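Chapter review: from sequence to fold.
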Amino acid sequence: MELIDEAIAGGWEHRRACGYLELSESRAWRWRRRRDSNCLDDGRPGSAVHGLRPEEVTAILEVFEAWGEIDRSHRKLAHRGSYLGLVWVSPATVRRVLAAHGLVLRRPRRVIRPERRPFPEWADYRRNSIWIYDVTHFAGCPRHAVFAVMDLVTRKWITELVSIEETSTQVQVVFMDALETEGLLELIEARQDQVTADTSPSMPTLTFCSRCYWPSATTARR
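The token string follows.
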């Protein structure tokens, strides 16, 4: 401010003096007003607007004590606090508060995977012995379902079906198409005719499950 006053006294314009000193003219005028009011000295800094209040820290600790063993995640605890209407903070804030108080979330226990079931003795691990199917949706057409049938042994993609419905009817249609594609439809029809003539419960027939199909099953079950 003294340099600007000396430059103005020497005939310089205020704007020219500020430009020479690389100082914003609006800031220079603001400093001048503060000097005229005798408040040019820097004031004592206050608390940050985004700083945590003591009651918010207490609420975070209460959420940790009540739900820490259940959620076991800073993100889940942050959402839990907002769901309960106790505190609205970010997961990073929850982590920082817990670290300041020496609190650590325990990692969730690892889920023990069940033992893999052995391959069925009655199923032959050969071509056209076990078929699997699945249904999926694509992002470009989420209202359409795509059914696909594949041979589990050879990994061959047998056939597929696109439909706006996702019911057991589409599953039957896509399997019938797969049987016709592989030339097994006449064999299946012959077996069904034989089952109709012979009422023995041990007669081979079609076997379906939720995600698999065995054309060579030895137990009659539909």
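Two observations follow directly from the output. The chain is about 40% helix and 15% strand. Helices lie at 2-9, 14-20, 25-36, 54-71, 74-83, 91-100, 168-181, 185-197.
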